[in-house]
Design a protein that fits this description.
alpha+beta, 2 domains, four-stranded antiparallel β-sheet
């Protein structure tokens, strides 16, 4: 039964069309990051970047060379789209995109992480066996089928992101529309838009329709009777998010996934009418079937565990941010605050002044106060910076933070020398306060 679930052959038309769209979108994401100034702000201007912890060595890549880095990723995107050296291009893009993801957290976005996971899956899919340069150049044989697991792995990946996103919204500040009110009020100057976005009924509609959409969209797309309504809802939901929040390619990538919810033969007839149908009807079990099943199952077990890891950490994820990343906790809270560091020479007890602006960009300064891991990383940076001058220092931080409009409260224990604290990977950091209400 498991072999049939994995290796039943189906028409590969959805995968072929998706490859065209996917390649185009990752090309636009890469080139768009250059054109809009995203690369400049996050990768060129900073002399220090808040990388993922233990990936600080990636700071050596910062600088103008990141323009070329993103341009090369754009080229790989086009190669994926046209199916030219597809495997190489897909794997190269995956590695490079993962590097850029690990390089900075100042502009963190769950969608960047989702793209890594989709890229990993796409590396293993035979998306270049039809309608590609690889076929035309006889680098691979033309095929008209794919396996069932190719389709369902992509559907399952999106389902995990949607369902966990829905579950994460079930908390008081979402249910009473506190966060939505802060996100939408006074967002536009146009009178009718301003009136709509300031309306409390609209806030509750967005809050509860968001929960319902994320929870139900995949089942609704899979069921033929509700599919048309779900497709319409998908277009409305994602185009609205694109217009209001300007979140890059994610809304359009989500719409591209609609291809996999229709019967593969339907996609072939409607979009690729000249493509021959798949002629296989029996299960085709490859020699490496055991490896494929083990890899796919292991991959998705990890995806099911990572989003709930914050439950084993003795802290509140909204306040401490521990377990926030890679968990589909998308646009759930707003935090603001300020921070200043106290740097003391250990030998002389002299207080050493420090200006954040001398080391960080304005965007980094704005994000620093509300993220404990970044606060800790900058303390390590200060320690190292003074060590290069043969000076041993202690570094203390005073961060006052507001969560979803509440009064500001201290985020960090001001009596702890953060530069001497280790980073605890699997437990709560004891120097983060517990004052979230």
């Amino acid at each position: 039964m498991l072999n049939r679930l994995f290796f039943k052959p189906i028409d590969n038309a959805p995968l072929i069309v998706f490859r065209w769209l996917f390649g185009l979108l990752i090309f636009l994401e890469s080139v768009g990051a250059i054109v809009t100034g995203w690369v400049r702000v996050n990768m060129v201007e900073p002399s220090f970047s808040f990388t993922f912890i233990e990936f600080e060595w990636l700071n050596v890549l910062l600088g103008p060379q990141m323009y070329a880095f993103y341009a090369v990723m754009g080229v790989f995107g086009l190669m994926v789209m046209f199916g030219w050296f597809y495997r190489f291009a897909m794997m190269a893009f995956t590695v490079m995109w993962t590097i850029t993801y690990l390089m900075q957290k100042t502009s963190y976005n769950n969608h960047y992480y989702l793209l890594i996971l989709i890229c990993i899956i796409m590396c293993f899919l035979p998306a270049h066996h039809y309608g590609s340069m690889d076929v035309r150049l006889k680098r691979v044989r033309s095929r008209h089928h794919m396996f069932n697991w190719h389709r369902w792995s992509l559907i399952l990946m999106m389902a995990i992101a949607y369902v966990y996103g829905s579950i994460a919204k079930i908390y008081p500040d979402w249910l009473d529309a506190t966060f939505i009110r802060r996100a939408f009020t006074n967002r536009y100057d146009t009178p009718w838009l301003r009136e709509l976005f300031n309306d409390s009924t609209f806030h509750y509609f967005i809050a509860y329709s968001g929960i319902a959409f994320d929870l139900l969209i995949v089942p609704a797309l899979l069921w033929k009777r509700t599919r048309l309504f779900a497709v319409i809802a998908s277009f409305v939901f994602h185009l609205f998010n694109s217009a209001v929040f300007q979140i890059g390619i994610f809304p359009y990538l989500s719409l591209a996934f609609l291809l996999f919810f229709y019967p593969p033969n339907t996609i072939r007839r409607k979009i690729l009418p000249s493509k021959p149908p798949s002629m296989f009807t029996r299960t085709l079990v490859p020699k490496h079937a055991s490896f494929v099943k083990g890899f796919v199952i292991s991959f998705f077990i990890v995806q099911l565990i990572l989003p709930v890891r914050h439950h084993v950490i003795n802290s509140n994820v909204f306040w401490s941010e521990e377990g926030h990343r890679m968990s589909w906790r998308m646009m759930l809270r707003s935090k603001s605050g300020y921070i200043h560091y106290t740097v003391i020479d250990v030998e002389t007890n002299e207080r050493i002044p420090i200006r954040l602006e001398d080391h960080l960009t304005p965007k980094q300064v704005r994000g620093l106060a509300t993220h404990p891991d970044m606060i800790w990383q900058f303390a390590q940076y200060i320690k190292k910076h003074h060590a290069e001058k043969d000076r041993d220092v202690a570094v203390y931080a005073n961060a006052m933070v507001s969560l979803n409009g509440r009064p500001k409260k201290p985020l960090i224990d001001v009596d702890v020398d953060l530069s001497s604290e280790p980073w605890r990977r699997y437990s709560a950091q004891p120097w983060i306060t517990k004052k979230y209400d």
